[in-house]
Amino acid sequence: MKRFAYLGVFVVGLALVLVAGCSSLDKQSVSEQLLALPGNESLAPHLETHALPLNFPGVDEVVELKVLRMPRPGAPRLLLIHGTPGTLLNWSESLRGSEDFEGLEAFFDVTALELAGHGMSRDDLQPETFQECADFLSAAADALDIEPSIVVGHSYGGEVAWRFALDRPELVEALVLISSSGYTRADDEWLPEEQAMRDLPGAGLGWLLNARDRVDHALAPHFRGKPPADFSEETFLVCENSVNWRTMVNLARDENGLRSGELKNLTMPTLLLWGEDDVAYPIERFAQRFATDIPDSELIVVEACGHYLPQERPDEFVRLLREFSLAP
To answer: What's the rounded Cα separation, in Å, for the pair 92 and 84?
Structure first.
């Protein structure tokens, strides 16, 4: 009954919004508003925009690539891959640090990429699959001459990262997966908003009903405490764009465990970071399985943390990455 009630509310609300004639927030406006947030203003000078030709199965076009670089010659190289819905600016506090801790920029040569169909990049490419995202990452790495790096991926970005590591192991010195997707979920393991995206025919138009209170409600179960205000606003702004929203729906529908049988082929050192309260990918079903399947892996469970370690415990995230990079 709850599912049908939700569907009724969705259809009625969608009809009202369509009558009102709402339109998607364009990528230029998304970018301007994201960069105007207090935690992101200082990152603007590090942001680059490139035209990226893509030529892989099903895709032959030129799209916009957003990349953030914070060089530190001689330091370990990091390649950061955000989750969905997301933007490369999601890493801002971990990059910059605060009065209480030094950020990643103090210890690493950092590159953060924005995936196609996400965040600020002005394009109409809406990846249908995780493999298309991994192919995009591979093309971006070639175009930017990315050297072998510690590749860090969070949530859906984690699955993109480990697929990239399988396809381009020569570019991955080590791998860090933070609350990553990658295995088939049982029917009762989907959160309500995820199930709606997978099942409802009109889910791709959900951006029409985007609202700050809806975003806060969706994020709340994923944090031990209250979601950071800047991160909630980033998520809201990203979801205001129709391409970003439909990419999120496409990937939710593609989350099916494909290629998980290849995880045993990863040979690089791999760090698995999981919040003890992760409700999206519970430790017992996901983290421990990654730890079993990836040969050279270590699992660290972070206390007092949910699904969003880089946002909820950025100080601990930086500390763990630094220790991992210094390990013999």
So the answer is: 16
Question: How far out from the chain centre does Cα 140 lie?
Answer: 16
The set of residues, in sequence order, having a beta carbon less than 8 Å from that of 38 and lying 6+ positions away, is: 230
The dihedrals phi and psi of 122, each to the nearest 5 degrees, come to -85, 100
Alpha-carbon torsion angle 226, 47, 177, 135, nearest 10: 130
Verdict on whether the full-model pTM lies above 0.85: yes
What values do phi and psi take at 325, rounded to 5? -70, -25
* Per-residue DSSP letter, 298: E
Query: What radius of gyration do the chain's Cα atoms show?
Result: 19
> Residue 283's Cα: distance from chain center in Å?
19
CA-CA distance, 150 to 109, in Å (whole number)? 10
- Burial degree of 255 (CB within 10 A; 0-12, 13-18, 19+): buried
On average, the pLDDT of the chain sits at 93
Structure tokens at 230: 């800047």
In contact, 207 and 242? CB cutoff 8 Å: yes
Tally Cβ neighbours within 10 Å of residue 172.
24
Q: How far apart are CA 78 and CA 41, in angstroms?
A: 21
Per-residue pLDDT at 167: 98
Q: Could you read off the pLDDT of 315-326 as tens digits, one per residue?
A: 999 999 999 999
| Domains of the chain, CATH where assigned | 25-186+195-326 (3.40.50.1820)
Q: Look at residues 200, 208, 291, 249 and name the one whose alpha carbon lies nearest to residue 85.
A: 249
Give the model confidence (pLDDT) of 131-157 as tens digits.
999 999 999 999 999 999 999 999 999
Return the bridge partners of 54, or none: 61
The residues, ordered by sequence, that sit 6+ positions from 209 with a Cβ below 8 Å of its Cβ are 10, 13, 14, 17
CB contact set of 18 (below 8 Å; sequence gap of 6+): 208
